[in-house]
Specification:
By secondary structure, the protein is an alpha/beta fold. The protein is built from 12 helices and 10 strands. Helices cover 49% and strands 13% of the residues.
Length: 372
């Protein structure tokens, strides 16, 4: 077999893997039927960690207080802020003493760990309810029935973890566009795996778990020095088909807001990469298989085109993954309530893959040694 046919065989294999991944997303990213199962409305504690984010809290706190749910509380952990965050929280707490509670990590607290895991643990311990929902100050629920919809995930008594939907706001500019595209397809992949009982990742916003399980398993003791992965390590360690639920109902979505700059992108992706280095082998395989198959698809497509560009079956192999990416991108974007530009699908890779490689190289260089 000549090198040209070896390249063609690899191109075909990459096309099949990419196509299977898009079909996989289409099948699993589906909304539940309305009104089939009533939720058990037990108490819920919403835990959010904020550091010098008064402006974000101005938007976030009213959106939680306005929730149409019988029993819930909001616990805001002030993580070493120096912008009078606690003064602001106390002023609101006077009006909502039964809902808003506060915890504080003092500014002068010896704090050897990066990230928010220590502050999250403080918030979880302060919670009075068994069901915990993690949120970020930059996240805003898209409905007053957000908690009600999310609680449906706990209908099964065996459920420990519930993953809700998260979408990015439509910020303008290349950094925001790049970040939203990369986040969209990564979230689709992780949600799809979670739907079939193989959870490995979730955004820290709109992620729920049971307090007793979190405390009994010493959740973050093994990865406290890793700056992110608040949900990832819990799911990879203990998540199964029976104890993990995914809720992508319209009312269960939250929107991530905030200004997106290249610094924000690099900071967030640096945190993600630091966590990814400590993923299990199976979790790494699921993430890399999709990215590497798309990269291989384009590389072998160019190589094969040099010899087989005049053959109809070459264009057939090329077109199937591209068309499926458009269908999957458009359908899933509609279901996830994000910009329909995602339906460009694999054509986006022409820009995002090279940009992603540049970002990866910069991250690998600038990542602190203590995170490795």
């Amino acid at each position: 077999m000549t090198s040209e046919y070896i390249c063609l065989a690899l191109f075909t294999l990459a096309a099949v893997i990419v196509a299977v991944n898009y079909v996989f997303m289409l099948v699993n990213i589906r909304k539940p039927k309305k009104g089939t199962v009533p939720e058990k409305k037990e108490g819920i504690s919403v835990v959010v960690v904020a550091r010098n984010q008064m402006d974000d809290l101005h938007r976030f706190i009213p959106s939680i207080i306005a929730q149409d749910y019988p029993r819930f509380e909001l616990i805001v952990v002030d993580d070493r802020s120096f912008d009078n965050t606690m003064v602001f929280l106390k002023s609101i707490q006077r009006n909502y003493p039964s809902i808003l509670k506060t915890a504080c990590v003092n500014e002068d607290t010896p704090y050897p760990w990066p990230g928010r895991k220590f502050a999250i643990t403080i918030g979880v311990k302060a919670a009075q309810y068994e069901r915990i929902v993690l949120m970020e100050p930059t996240a805003v629920p898209q409905s007053q029935h957000w908690l009600s919809s999310l609680s449906i995930g706990f209908n099964n008594d065996d459920t420990r973890y519930v993953i809700g939907g998260c979408v990015r706001s439509g910020d303008k500019g290349l950094p925001a566009w790049f970040h939203s595209v990369m986040s969209f397809f990564y979230n689709l992949l992780s949600l799809s795996w979670a739907k079939i009982g193989q959870p490995y990742s979730a955004t820290v916003s709109n992620f729920s778990f049971k307090k007793s399980c979190f405390l009994s398993e010493n959740a973050y003791m093994d990865n406290m020095r890793i700056p992110s992965g608040e949900a990832d390590f819990l799911l990879q360690k203990n998540g199964t088909f029976k104890n993990t639920a995914v809720v992508i109902d319209d009312d269960a979505f939250i929107k991530q807001t905030g200004i997106c700059t290249w610094k924000n992108v690099f900071d967030e992706f640096t945190d993600m990469y630091a966590s990814f280095r400590h993923y299990t082998l199976w979790a790494k395989t699921r993430v890399l298989s999709f990215l590497l198959s798309k990269l291989s698809f384009w590389i072998f497509a160019v190589c094969s085109a040099l010899t087989f560009y005049a053959q109809w079956w070459f264009w057939a192999v090329l077109s199937v993954p591209l068309l499926l990416s458009v269908v999957a991108g458009g359908v899933c974007a509609h279901r996830m309530k994000v910009s329909m530009r995602m339906m460009i699908g694999m054509f986006l890779d022409v820009i995002t893959l090279p940009l992603g490689l540049i970002v990866f190289i910069i991250i690998a260089i600038r990542m602190p040694k203590k995170w490795r």
